[in-house]
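Thread: Newbie trying to understand structure tokens

Hi all, I'm a second-year student working on a class project, and my supervisor (Dr. K.) asked me to get a predicted structure for one chain before our next meeting. I've only ever worked with sequences, so writing a 3D structure as a token string is new to me. If someone could post the tokens and maybe explain what I'm looking at, I'd be very grateful. Here's the chain:
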Amino acid sequence: MNEMASSRMTPLLLVVDDELVGRIYIEKALQSEGYDVITAENGQQAYEMAKQHSPNMIIMDVMMPVMDGYQSCVAIRAEEDQLKVPILMLTGLDDIESVEKSFDSGATDFIVKPVNLAIFKQRVQNGLKMWQADLEIYQQHMRQSHAYGIAKMGYWDWDKETNKLYFSDEIYTMLDATREEFSEPRDLLDVRASADDVERIKAASGATIKHGIPYSIEHHILRPDKQVQIIHHHAELIKNKQGQVIRLSGIMQDITERYLAEEKIRHQLYYDSLTDLPNRTLFHEQLETALTMPSRVTDGLAILFINLDRFKNINDSFGHDVGDKFLILLANKLNQKIRTTDLVARVGADEFALILEGISSIEGAEHVAKNLLNIFTEKHTLDGYELIITASIGITITSPDNCDKSVLLQQADLAMQHVKEVGGNQFCFYSEQMVSGAYDALIIEKELRQALERNELRVFYQPKVCVTTGKIKGMEALVRWLHPQKGLVSPYHFITIAEETGQIIQIGQWVLEEACRQTKLWHTQGYDDLVVSINVSAKQFHQQDFVDEILKVIDETGIDPHRIDLEVTESCTMTNIDKTISILKRFRELGIRISLDDFGTGFSSLSLLNKLPLDILKVDIAFIRDINEQGENGELAKLIISMAKTLGLKTVSEGVEEQHHIDFIKENGGDEYQGFLFSKPIPATEFETLLESNNIKLTSDRVASTSFKTMMKSI
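---
Reply by user tm_fold:
Sure, no problem. This is what the structure looks like when written as tokens:
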């Protein structure tokens, strides 16, 4: 009813009188003032027209048939829920009882018949002005209520003199309560807020009254649906002219959504999105806090860095989805192993870090580290796969002289790197000797860059021997570093650094060229059947121009591509499978053989193995060295050889150091072997002497192999 009335440019007045003459008289008088007028003959019509037209004012006679003015006024007021339309009652009675009855019925004013037009017009004008003023107040209240609703806010007021507390309707709505349910606002707080929060509000209010400082606090409210709301509570003092406190007024606002959003942002800032463990940022903050506590001197504190060994193989073999699930699984197991006072965080893609409080001895940290290693060494079943992984753990412990965060972190990291350098799957504590080890690594990186320029690298050759005949069938080309001061440096000390720095690409290319050149030389000396095996790193394999580099070396050295065997690892083939298969097929078309190195130590699936264009499976030393004289402990080696035969592949068994190793390989159908029993890797001159003594030179009637250029023309 109110919206229609408030939107009119010209007020609409409803005149109600059962006497036609009187009705027309008033209608004409109002129209002369510029008002729009509609009329009704009795109270019932007035009631219906008021609902239909929403007039800005009603002028209604008291004495009418069907429904008198009093009854109609009551009925109209019953339909209004907010702003009330002004009703001017016309009565021929001027006694006090009639006036009171008019007001009791809901009238806003009255005038006695016969109507004095001048007074009447002034009463109508005043009534409309009052209605307009009420409308503006009402609209302001509605706008305020709407704003409060958007802000999820309500206001409250406490009168110091009466000790009365008032809550606005918005507060009741916000807290899902009603005035009927809680007539006393304090009861609402007592029921919905905790006792501690109620006491906090009382204490804050008392402090504000005493010191005159506004307060702002946040507390919880438990709704009837058991949902928890976070309420922001703010209050200020109201004083009279004499400066005396007369009331406390404030607002209550539901900030649950904002609080949850801030919590979400904070969680994203401080927690790993995958594992939900604390991240590197929170780890550093917690460590800094822990190091400032007095207990770190008396009780001690240990820092552990954990790096998963060869975790990339899992991602490459099974995909990142399985890898992510595996990280979540390991994170949960780590979290279950630590105490509530400790902290485990994910600080890198495959790295975790722990803060262990109350650890002052090596024995205490050692006990924890052993338990953590057990987590990794056990079998983990995930998505139908059995996953096994190891970890490298570096540890450092605080002391009164050692509580600098950056120093401790560096120590734990150095200890972890040391474990990785010696093969992983163990833990070690930081020692001062590791600092020199890290320095040595930097020196090696620097000197390795100059090694090629100074011609310090050498290629050694380890024979590959036929199991049945004992004759050399080929050799694996292995890089060595002849350092001018340190002598012969094992690949163990520099290959990892070369891979990390990318130098492995240049080194690998040099080995390829040198090995092919030397092998071609032996071919010209009559050792035509020799096949040279060359290791290919993952970085080298996935170069854009790797195939072109191979073709270039073959062309320049003149070697028969059928006498080249490229050894690739499982991890090398797992990145971009389709591209890998395409490259390997290209090599096969040229006649180059492909060996899969370290088979069984990675995580490739048999279905993928069947797709790769391979010629040879290399049985890793790990499956050979434990075979005893009775042929025991060789189940995995036997399985790999059998599987290779099923797939039509040959096998080369590595690490043969005992005669019973050869016997086992021969008995189970293996083809070739290499190992210290026959020969360690040796320089080219020594290998040539070994060839002569092995008597494998070809007879003169052997047909020479097709040249590379002739073969290329036929492709």
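A couple of things are worth pointing out once you decode it. The chain has four domains: 2-147, 152-260, 271-442, 457-697. Residues 699-715 have pLDDT under 50 and may be disordered. Feel free to ask follow-ups in this thread.
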